[in-house]
Write a structure and sequence with these properties.
It is a single chain. This protein is α/β, with parallel strands linked by helices and 208 residues long. The protein has eight helices and eight strands; from the N terminus they run ββαααβαβαβαβαββα.
Length: 208
């Protein structure tokens, strides 16, 4: 059992893929920036400050604000993945420390996440605003560990992207690949999770 569990948000707790990509497409069309739809998926799991420059966008802050406004059109597409809430409820029953480590800004996190009433399940939340370096750098996870007073060897980070798994490796914590949201099932990870209940299988295996 890992006494501490950390979670990514997009592609792990929430299915936000279509909302993110649809709103990004609208942003690029507004700015007459050519793109191929299949070339947009790389933005999933990294902050806008890193993804937007890849399109030649220079006014990053303004573009990110516009992207967020455009995404509101697609809020109806955002949902909690099946099995997440029962898993989190059981995790808290087991008395585990929990946290979120996300590339979302605090504003984005509140806008996209608060309405699903999952916040009470988490002890700490580390957003992109909270660290100077972002995934795949380990700083976000290390920040969460410090706030939780948890040790790397006692922790698993669950996410859906290679950036998440690299962040976990750099921080010295176990990695769990959320296959229900992952684009690449071949990403290296310590655990390959096909359903949120697989997390409980790992956590409960060590129970007397």
């Amino acid at each position: 059992m890992y006494p501490c569990l950390l979670f990514d948000v997009d592609g792990t707790l929430l299915d936000t893929e279509q909302a993110i990509l649809s709103s990004l497409s609208d942003l690029l069309r507004e700015r007459n920036i050519p793109y191929e739809p299949e070339d947009l998926a790389f933005v999933l799991g990294i902050p806008s400050v890193r993804s937007l420059p890849r399109f030649g966008i220079q006014d990053i802050e303004e573009a990110a604000k516009r992207w967020n406004r455009l995404m509101e059109r697609f809020d109806y597409q955002i949902r909690v993945f099946e099995g997440i809430e029962p898993m989190l409820r059981r995790v808290k029953e087991l008395g585990l420390k929990t946290g979120i480590v996300t590339s979302k800004t605090r504003t984005e996190y509140i806008k996209d996440f608060a309405r699903f009433d999952l916040h009470p399940y988490f002890d700490v939340v580390v957003c992109a605003d909270d660290t100077s370096r972002h995934k795949p750098h380990p700083e976000p996870i290390l920040t969460a560990l410090k706030r939780l007073e948890a040790e790397p060897q006692d922790t698993m980070y669950i996410g859906d992207s290679i950036y998440d798994m690299q962040c976990a490796a750099g921080a010295g914590v176990a990695s769990g690949l959320a296959l229900w949201g992952a684009h690449d099932a071949g990403i290296a990870a310590n655990y390959r999770l096909r359903h949120p209940k697989d997390i409980l299988t790992i956590m409960e295996a060590a129970l007397p």
